[in-house]
Design a protein that fits this description.
heterodimer; A: mainly beta; seven-stranded mixed β-sheet; four-stranded antiparallel β-sheet; B: mainly beta; six-stranded mixed β-sheet; about 0% helix
């Protein structure tokens, strides 16, 4: 089954304790992206990746890191989480980058709800 | 900066009522337009998309949207909503210039049975 898988789905942590949210897709998609969803703010892009070893900042990258060593995986790293990073996080992927090709729609993971105390 | 505006933040309708959710974007070039739906507790799913051609796009579950280039709009419509349409709806825009998708802030739709 074609899917984007995120783990963990729920996590409560404390300020400063490094954590990684994993994301994996099995559709051979080139483009992957991380978003955070906050009430009243919609989805805001954190980082995106056009392909292996190609990553770039989105609109709210502060406090986050990413890597793309393999095509299928795109982990989100919070080196020193803070309470303002409490949010719902979505990983998404698409075959083509935005604006290219007719299959540029995003496929989303189930979401990871993170609480930083 | 490019942006997407969804003017209705919360909409409450009775079953069988007609729905129209507004979406306006600010980019002046060639765009691709999307509507995504997020049912309670679930991830976002594609409802419909516009890339080119007929500006009236039909999606799943009886939804449709019309691209009006002169108004920079891509409004979502459904003639008769059902209780199961209760969800949050997001409009999104992409174009090759930025390699990004830009989402609106979402519209929460509640359909009363």
């Amino acid at each position: 089954e074609a899917q984007v898988t995120q783990n963990p789905r729920y996590l409560i942590t404390v300020t400063g304790k490094k954590l990684t949210v994993t994301c994996s897709q099995n559709m051979n998609h080139e483009y992957m992206s991380w978003y955070r969803q906050d009430p009243g703010l919609g989805l805001r892009q954190i980082y995106y990746s056009m392909n292996v070893e190609v990553t770039d900042k989105g609109d709210v990258p502060e406090g986050y890191k990413v890597s793309r060593k393999e095509k299928r995986n795109f982990p989100l790293i919070l080196e020193s989480p803070s309470p303002n990073q409490t949010s719902l996080y979505f990983c998404a992927s698409s075959f083509y980058p935005p604006g290219q090709g007719s299959t540029g729609e995003l496929f989303f993971g189930e979401g990871s709800r993170l609480t930083v105390l | 900066a490019q942006s997407v505006s969804q003017h209705n933040h919360h909409v409450i309708l009775s079953e069988a009522a007609s729905l129209e959710l507004g979406c306006n974007y600010s980019y002046g070039g060639t765009v691709n337009l999307f509507w995504y739906v997020q049912y309670p507790g679930q991830h976002l799913q594609l409802l419909l998309k516009y890339f080119s051609g007929d500006p009236l796009v039909k999606g799943i579950k009886g939804f449709e949207a019309e691209f009006i280039k002169s108004k920079f709009s891509f409004n979502l419509r459904k003639p008769s909503v059902q209780w199961s349409d209760t969800a949050e709806y997001f409009c999104a825009v992409s174009h090759s210039g930025t390699y990004k998708y830009i989402f609106g802030t979402g519209t929460r739709l509640k359909v009363l049975a």
